[in-house]
Amino acid sequence: MLNPIDATPVIRDGGAVGQYPGQIHEGVAWWIGACLVVTQKVTRIAVAHDRHPVITDFTERLCRGAINAQHYACNVRYLGNQTEDQLRKALTHFGGIPGAWLSAETANDITTVRVRLYDRHGRVLVGLGQVRIGVGMSRWQVGQAPLQRARNVCSSRTTW
User: Fold this and answer.
1) What pTM, to 2 d.p., does this model score?
2) Out of 15, 40, 73, 157, which could bridge 116 as a Cys pair, Cβ 3.0 to 4.6 Å?
C-alpha cells in the first residue's frame, strides 16, 4: 500500500476494522475489495453500507479495488444504504455472490470503520488473518497485494 498500516489490529477474519483517521484509510478498502474478488474467484459482488458520512469514500474505493482485481473484470452491484441483514439476503437473491458491508460509528469524536466480507453463501469470510501476516511483512503498492497468497489461505465458514 502507498500508505502502510499496522495490519495486525486492522485486518481480521471477516474483513477490517479500525479508527479513522489513524489505523485505517480508504486504500485499505481498495485492497480488501481486490482480495475479496481474487480469493473468491468471482466476477460479481454486491456492496452496501450504513450511510455514515465517512463510509462513502471507503465504499467507492472498495468498489474500485474489486473492479480492478487482476483479470476478473468484476461487476460490482452497488446497493447503497442497506442493513447488514439486507445485504446478506441480497447475496442469495442475486444467485449466491460474495459481498461487502461497510459501516462506521462515531463516539466521543472517534470514528471506527468496519468492512465485513461475505462469501457466496452469506457467511463471514475467514482466512484474512493469514494474509495480514504478509501485509505486515511487506509494503505493497495499492494494486500489488499478495493476491496469490490470498487465494491460498482465504476460505469461508460460519462464525458466531
Assistant:
1) 0.80
2) 15
For the stretch 57-82, pLDDT in tens is 999 999 999 999 888 889 999 999 99
DSSP per-residue string spanning the chain? --S---HHHHEETTEEEEEETTT--HHHHHHHHHHHHHHHT-SEEEEEE---TTHHHHHHHHHHHHHTSTT--PEEEEEEE--HHHHHHHHHHTTS--EEEEEEEEETTEEEEEEEEE-TTSPBEE-HHHHHHHHHH--PPTT---HHHHHHH-EE----
In angstroms, how far is CA 121 from the centroid of its own chain? 16
d(CA 134, CA 130): 7
Residue that is written with C-alpha cell 479500525 in the block = 18
Q: Which residues contact 115 (CB under 8 A, 6 or more apart)?
A: 15, 16, 17, 28, 29, 32, 58, 62, 100, 101, 102
Q: How far apart, in whole angstroms, are the C-alpha atoms of residue 86 and residue 79?
A: 10
Spatial separation of the C-alpha atoms in residues 95 and 103, rounded to whole Å: 24
CA 83, CA 34: separation in Å to the nearest integer? 23
Tens of pLDDT, residue by residue over 91-111, are: 999 999 999 999 999 999 999
